[in-house]
């Protein structure tokens, strides 16, 4: 899709930003876990995860406790938390 070229997190809808923050604070979660933490509808969370995937900031993996579900996590830690030893 050419419309998402150069698009960052700041260009995403509020629901995608909320899902990003939930994953940032609560770590890897299933879609059901994201729905519970964010209090968004399942459909909205699905859409937000699609948008985050298009931008390339979320990674989908197999949830071994229940193979019917996927586990979602951020690709890389936020820049301000990348290396705590650097900040004094």
Any overview of this molecule?
This is ArsR family transcriptional regulator. InterPro entries: WH-like_DNA-bd_sf (IPR036388), WH_DNA-bd_sf (IPR036390). It comes from Haloarcula salinisoli. This protein has a three-stranded antiparallel beta sheet with strand order 1-3-2. It has three helices and three strands. The chain has helices spanning 14-26, 31-38, 42-55, and strands spanning 29-30, 58-62, 70-74. It is globular. With 88 residues, it is of the alpha+beta class. The chain has one domain (13-75): Arc Repressor Mutant, subunit A (Orthogonal Bundle). A hairpin with a 7-residue loop joins strand 2 (58-62) and strand 3.
Summary tags:
3 helices, 3 strands, WH-like_DNA-bd_sf, alpha+beta, 88 residues, WH_DNA-bd_sf, ArsR family transcriptional regulator, Arc Repressor Mutant, subunit A
How far apart are the first and last residues' alpha carbons, in Å? 42 Å
Going by helix content, strand content and strand pairing, the class is alpha+beta
Largest sheet: 3 strands, antiparallel
Order of helices and strands: HEHHEE
Q: How many DSSP H or I helices?
A: 3
Percentage of β-strand residues: 5-15%
CATH homologous superfamily name?
A: Winged helix-like DNA-binding domain superfamily/Winged helix DNA-binding domain
Q: Rough shape?
A: globular
Uncertain runs are none
Average pLDDT: 83
Percent helix, as a range, is 25-40%
What is the CATH class designation?
Mainly Alpha
Strands side by side in the biggest sheet: 1-3-2
Q: Tally of extended strands?
A: 3
Indicate the CATH architecture.
Orthogonal Bundle
As a whole number of angstroms, the C-alpha radius of gyration is 14 Å
At CATH level 3, the topology is: Arc Repressor Mutant, subunit A
| Overall domain count | 1
Protein name: ArsR family transcriptional regulator
Organism: Haloarcula salinisoli
InterPro entries: WH-like_DNA-bd_sf, WH_DNA-bd_sf
